[in-house]
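Exercise (ungraded).
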Amino acid sequence: MFEHLNAQAQDKIMALMVEYREDPRDTKVDLGVGVYKDPTGNTPVMRAVKAAEQRLIDTETTKSYTALAGDPAFVNALSGLVLGDAVEADRLAGAAQPGGTGAIHQALELAKMANPDVTIWVSQPTWPNHLSIIKHLKLPMVEYSYFDNDTRAVDFGAMMSDLDGVKQGDVVILHGCCHNPTGANLNLEQWREVTELLGKKGALPLIDIAYQGFGDGLEADAAGVRHVASTLDEALIAASCSKNFGVYRERTGLLMAKTPDEKLKTVTQQNLTHLNRQNFSFPPDHGARVVQMILDDPTLRADWESELEDVRTTMLALRKQLAEALQARTGSDRFGFIAEHRGMFSRLGATPEQVNAMKEKHGIYMVGDSRMNIAGLNKDTVDILADAIVDAGV
Ligand code: LMR
């Protein structure tokens, strides 16, 4: 029977991760997969996570099942972090998920159950796994313009003009902050305009927020999603703790649904719970419990926020250093966008050939569309990258 299976294309980001590991050069620089690295190249366990895990080991008395939608304390704590008080409790359904990917997958399944004729709109470009999951679920998809390849900023006019084509019941995927892969983000005024348009069209926003705290800070990064969730009757929000809590392998995420009234909240919650049961029964608990312990304990929370802020400012300093190094080498401001972008990624705007040349000649690994993970740099490798970018003729 297995002879009927088709070969599957490898995920490009994951394939690059393997290729990097196998490269024997000790001068190699990994700007591929979206994982935070400290200046020594290590992805640390955050202090508050270690402390919470220790406390958990000391106090946990059972590994019995939690609830199908995850521990309600986790759902409350994480929805509070993302949404603040933008949505009243009796309007918000939520279920814990295995990471941000799990949340996106489940959100799309839910959308398909609610509207079998749904079309999914994605930014051009977007995280490749969005495309892959949409294809896997056999959902029709349309791309909307997002990134201006010349200015390396959001082409908001083109975005709005494309989104004018959304139909009632369509789903529009938006990146809550720190757009992956470009690093170019909507400002709050633009969020307001998008929200108004989607409201007018009766389309459902699905906001993927996987980098809260990596851009302009925990609150500022949530401003767009909070505006959408407080303004529209319906919205889906997929949140990930992989990056901002550094719990990548623990698979910790949450799918939230803002509903128009209490009755629809109940039905939506039943559907989220049902989907968990069909797909994996109970979501993973360890990462979720650790996150909840941190968020609900003022001391752990303060320590986590301060470490996250250090991560954010380190990335900002690297952005500035790289933009300056390129300015010095080229005598032009055309790389100034690197300091303007926010989050882990920037799309450099190099051709696939240039990306390949930087890998072959300089051991610099970035995703083929020239997405760079800024957190993969340190003070010393910034110059190596700047030399390679100039050498490749970007
Ligand atoms: C990325 O975009 O590199 C991360 O979100 C990791 C992943 O799962 O692709």
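Further reading is listed at the end of the chapter. For now, observe: The radius of gyration is 21 Å. The domain at 10-45+301-391 is CATH 3.90.1150.10 (Aspartate Aminotransferase, domain 1).
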